[in-house]
Amino acid sequence: MLKISEVYEKQVKTTNERPDGSEYIGYSTVFSTRECLVNRDYIVAVHPHEFKSDITASKILDCFPEGTKFSTVILDGNSFRKSELLVVGSFEKFCQLLEG
Q1: For the chain, N or C: smaller number of CB within 10 Å?
Q2: Quick one: pLDDT at residue 80?
Q3: 72, 49 in Cβ contact below 8 A?
Q4: Distance between CA 33 and CA 3 in Å, rounded?
């Protein structure tokens, strides 16, 4: 088993104030991580992650320290919630973990 930090979008509740002083509830999404174990036998591919939109990249920079590297792990099997996981860690780190 391989322990990884999966990146996921988390919805947070915020309380905002209108100009008249009344409050209203709003929701926004932030990125967070959760630890998970992955069976090495189900890993099909790993590649460096590149963010496709500037909005997502800026949200990531707000939630993680500058210079944090991300990779995409692709899993095999129909029983998983999704086959691609965005994880914290460089491609080189995963090369070293999976080669051994």
Answers
A1: C
A2: 57
A3: yes
A4: 12
Beta-carbon count within 10 A of 64 CB: 16
Rounded distance, CA 98 to CA 93, Å?
A: 9
Which pair of structure tokens corresponds to residue 81?
């919630």
Q: 12-65, pLDDT tens digit by residue? A: 898 888 899 899 999 988 889 999 999 888 899 999 998 888 888 888 888 888
Structure tokens at 72: 């995409």
Give the pLDDT score at 51: 83
- Helix or strand or coil: residue 88? strand
Q: Using H for helix, E for strand and C for coil, what is the string for 42-62?
A: HEEEEEECCCCCHHHHHHHHH
Q: Which of 59, 49, 51, 83 is nearest to 10 (CA)?
A: 59
- What's the CA gap between 21 and 18, in Å, rounded? 5
Q: Give CA–CA dist 25/16, Å, rounded.
A: 6
CB 72 within 8 A of CB 50: no
